[in-house]
Request: fold
Amino acid sequence: MAISAARFMVSFDGQTPAYFSELSGITSEVEPAEYLAAHYRTGDVIHTKQFGKVKPPTITLKRGVDGSGFFLAWHEMARLGKPSSRMSGTLELQNAGGAAQAAYRLFDAWPCKVEIGGLRAGSSEIVMETVTFTCEKIVPL
Reply:
């Protein structure tokens, strides 16, 4: 059965939960590495793809700016290389009634990128904040 979500909630190490309106994606990647070898008897070249560099999983979420500055301050801690900027938490995909449709545990996450955009003078549009988290590991709950 396909999952639909009306909102996305993240909570980290006892912090107040934050709600987002858009999940741009959860990305996990292993780069392929080319491997060339010669067969020990025939000398034929063997060309294969092997597991290469593992990139850390990332999650990108978007919401309206609420004025708290929490994610920007947390990002600054990560920019300064403070070990305390790594926090574990949970991402929940919720329906309109607030019930969890799916959940993921995020280990040692930190905001690697924060974007604030959508600004236009004289417009009544909401200013959006996009936060990309990097994690050591993401596990479905």
